[in-house]
Amino acid sequence: MATNTNDMFSLGGELPINRLGYGAMRVTGEGIWGPPDDPEAAKQVLRRVVELGVNFIDTADAYGPNVSEALIAEALHPYADDLVVATKGGLTRTGPGEWPTNGQPEHLRQALDDSLKRLKVERIDLYQFHRPDPDVPFEDSLGALVEGRDAGKIRLIGLSNVTTDQLETALDMTPIASVQNRYNLTDRDSEDVLKLCEEKGIAFIPWYPVGAGDLANDTLQRIADEHDATIYQIALAWLLHHSPVMLPIPGTSSIEHLEENVAAADIVLSDDDMAALESLS
User: Fold this and answer.
1) Which domain range does residue 32 map to?
2) Which of these is catalytic: 22, 63, 79, 183?
3) Is 252 part of a structural domain of the chain?
4) How many domains does the chain have?
């Protein structure tokens, strides 16, 4: 029988966090564009995140843009001593659902400074390069983050949407604390990146962790029924059981849904459960 997965992970070997975090993308407006319809309700969700014991919140300057970071500061600053707020830079926004890349070092330097101001901190715990820019050498973009860390503006550096080759290149330049790639029960294209993270002791943060509408499956529903859980809770529990470096960050704008997600960390899947779920890929 597998053990309870509601345990801790040491991010970068120095920041202890609970393995189920919160992704703050959904506290913005439709299309991840503009403010939410009810900013006060969004801030209530953020406060409830912390009340539930979640101490890792992931955001980005592109969420809104700028809206998610600002709401986090309005709701939670001054931050609890054990709360880790991670953000990202490297994307720009031209409209709802539009995410152009910008990995120019000067853009990343300015993005970092702007995130520091919005989050009301002097140093960001985990700053992640949001997506490699095909028009900018990867090393140049990452170099801007290394400069930010050396200047005391970044504590730990992370990557997002990278290949194993890019991760290896990054590791030749600097320690990497986390990788955030798309990954869920039905989309395991980044399995090779996950395995490299396991080998190196790097946190793997799966975005789109429950696969939204892609989870309709008789096996999944049977296991959910046996645990008196939803299929989405089982999908999150599977992630936590699948790898010890996995740090899911399900996002929501609903307190009810948030509480449901957090409860998934207490689900104990059996070896038979895991074997059945692993076969769904």
Assistant:
1) 8-278
2) 63
3) yes
4) 1
pLDDT per residue as tens digits for the range 185-218? 989 999 999 999 999 999 999 999 987 556 778 8
Residue 69 within a domain = yes
Residue 39 lies in a domain: yes
In 122-240, beta strands by DSSP E:
124-129, 154-160, 178-182, 203-207
Do the domain assignments include residue 2?
no
Q: In degrees rounded to 5, what are phi and psi of residue 237?
A: -60, -40
Q: Parallel, antiparallel, or unpaired: how do β-strands 56-58 and 22-23 relate?
A: parallel
CA dist., res. 190 & res. 161, Å (int): 9
CB atoms within 10 A of CB 130: 26
Examine the residue annotation and report whether 127 is marked as an active-site residue of this protein: no
For 165, the token pair is 């080759």
Coil, strand or helix at 147: helix
Question: 25-40 pLDDT, tens per residue?
Answer: 999 999 999 999 999 9
